[in-house]
Amino acid sequence: MESIVTFNGFDAQVIFMIAAEIVLLLLSGIVSSSEVAYFSLSPADIRRLKRSESMASDSAIKLLEKPDMLLATILVANNMVNIGIVVISTYIIDSLFTFHHYKFLVNGVLVTFLLLLFGEILPKMFAQSKNVSIALAISQPLRFMRWLLYPLSYALVRVSNRIGEMAQHNVDISIEDLADAVDMATSGSTEEQKILSGIVNFASREVEEIMRPRMDIVAVEQTMTFSEVREIIISSGYSRLPVYADSLDNIKGTLFVKDLTEHANRGDDFGWQSLIREPYMVPMHKKINSMLEDFRADKVHMAIVVDEYGATQGLVTLEDILEEVVGEISDESDVEESFYQRLNENTYIFEAKTHIIDMLRVLQLDDALFEDVQGRAETIAGLMLEIKRNFLKKGDEITSHNIRFVVMAVEGHRIDKIKVIVRQNEQ
Questions:
Q1: What mean pLDDT is predicted for residues 383-403?
Q2: 207-326 falls under which CATH superfamily?
Q3: How confident is the model over 155-175, as pLDDT tens digits?
């Protein structure tokens, strides 16, 4: 029976090639370990390197200043070494053995085993626990290697950046696509999904959608006595109050309750108006992500919302914006209250100022249900007015999308309570 392999014996050239193979495997391991060492450095590790005054740490910091070039240098060097390992391994195997069958298979398995074990797995496992030491030890050789391989590394970085730019230009993900992706992600908790939905919709929402409407603003008149101001502060529990003259359309500033603490026992002769701070005004169609950035940059927590004519439409706070992402924020001073009452399975009574989206979520219906009829209305009362196109009085009814709205209470010209009946039997 013919043997599969014949051993040919060693000669001086083969021994030299084996030595070269061992050196290349060591180089491959060093280069592979440097990749893990540098790109697993934590911010704390980098700060320690910056504080050190050694030449090695200085070289390491300089390498980290251009991570793209560092990675390209490592990849180019590693591939060149690995090519050398493959070529020399093939020569050694061909010199030592004569294969009558399966030559390609034996070559492939043996070379792959050597590269993976000694050039990748063992070095990278070691580098995980000794990343700082390895980064320092190899920093200066890597800088020399970066200089030596600069043309190839530079070309690789340029090509990869160009491909990345082309890929980014061709990717067009809409807010709707992101929202659908969040809706399909059912592995997280309900709270997590609410937060993700809030983040996705954050950039598309406007201030007018989350503001406290004008009719609900608690403010103080500029001519009030100090005792009257104190009563409003105590009854409202707010830390900041708008100050107006004659009407809410003439906002003069903001009164910070903390500014009054040292004057709490003063009489009505105290000129509290001297503590009024400049008002912060925002247009009602401003995006809330931009509003949040303005709040952060200007270090303010409350703004007066105005329309294009400068008339006051509402008030928005930092808390209102944050609640769009994390949900309702309550503290020890908040009184728990619900904006609706459930009468039976299909019947509810809502406050007229309730946001349409909040109502639909209580009813477990699609947020976009009334998009075709709500126009620019944001509240249930506004939706009814938008549909009827006329003033509403107690007892008026409107039906839309199999939902019946009934005006239950009116205060002056202001709708207060609305009964909402879901007509499921007709859906």
A1: 87
A2: CBS-domain (3.10.580.10)
A3: 877 877 777 666 555 555 555
**Amino acid, res. 120:** E
C-alpha span between 397 and 392 (Å, rounded): 9
Q: Which residue has the higher pLDDT, 108 or 214?
A: 214
| CATH class of domain segment(s) 340-426 | alpha beta
Contacts of 389 (CB under 8 A, 6+ apart): none
Count the neighbouring beta carbons within 10 Å of the beta carbon of residue 90.
15
Assigned token pair, 92: 């050694």
Please, are residues 393 and 410 in contact by the beta-carbon 8 Å criterion? yes
pLDDT of residue 377: 82
What is this structure's pTM?
A: 0.45
pLDDT score at 426: 46
Looking only at the bridges linking them, the beta strands covering 312-317 and 340-342 are unpaired
The values of phi and psi at residue 65, to 5°, are: -65, -25
* Torsion, Cα of 142, 122, 102, 4 (10° steps): 120
Give Cβ neighbours of residue 417 (< 8 Å, ≥ 6 apart): 349, 350, 351, 352, 407, 408, 409
Q: Where are the domains of the chain?
A: 5-169, 207-326, 340-426
Beta strands of 86-156 (E only): which ranges? Answer: 97-99
What is the rounded distance in angstroms from the CA atom of residue 384 to the CA atom of residue 47?
61
Query: Token pair of 26, please?
Result: 């060591």
